[in-house]
Amino acid sequence: MTVHIGAKPGEIAETVLMPGDPYRAKWAAETFLEDAQLVNNVRGMLGFTGTWRGNRVSIQGSGMGMPSLSIYANELISEYGAQTLIRIGSCGGMQKHVGIRDVIIAMTATTITSPSSGIFREVNYAPCADWSLLKAAVAAAEAKGTTTHVGGIYSSDVFYAERPDLDEQMVRHGILGVEMEAAELYTLAARHGRRALAVLTVSDHLQTGEALPSEDRERTFGDMVEIALQAAFPDA
Ligand code: HPA
Questions:
Q1: If we measure between CA atoms, which residue out of 90, 62, 82 comes closest to residue 4?
Q2: What are the φ/ψ torsions at residue 128 (nearest 5 degrees)?
Q3: Mean pLDDT over all residues of the chain?
Q4: Which fold has domain 15-232?
Q5: Sign of the CA dihedral running 127, 132, 134, 137
Q6: How many angstroms is it from 116 CA to the middle of ligand 1?
Q7: Ligand 1 atom with minimal separation from the 204 CA
Q8: For residue 236, how far is its CA from the centre of ligand 1 (angstroms)?
Q9: pLDDT at res. 82
């Protein structure tokens, strides 16, 4: 048990998928894992462990935003020995060629500030994905035929942004989408020698104002979960 995770030692797998929403963790575990067991319900931040094609996997909610994700990722890494951490979540599309329902695989994640900013001081650290996971996720997405974009994303600290000029600069510099967690996940994984990736579904679009209807979400998010699982276990 840690401060925020009630699982006993050994109850969390070395591979952990991390959706922001704890109910999406429940849905993904029930839909994709065999023998999924609830291993955490502290603060309702549900976590499950089961198997996928014979491989042990945990799916643990991270909450929204980098400070929340940082709590769960730190405890998973330092106390439970998580080796591979894959964020699965939604993001806002930023480029015209990125459509609703498309998948974005984040090569890098730009931030203004993150829980790790304090240790970097004057350095603009570039959080980047693990190459082996990125490569396997792209191969899985191509095999599925999912419309997928690979490149930089923006990890924002706010959902309700008050700086349209910032979004404009991100768009100008080719950023594909905006979410709120990946940059800190990539930074923590790098610090501790672990592997991390973010596989995201575009749920809304900053340029067009479109949003994914709620009835479409499950099927679309399913592709993302399968891509993440295949990336973790490319031979399964
Ligand atoms: N902004 C930040 N995070 C998000 C968004 C957004 O538009 N959509 C989904 N996650």
A1: 62
A2: -135, 155
A3: 96
A4: Rossmann fold (3.40.50)
A5: negative
A6: 21
A7: 8
A8: 32
A9: 98
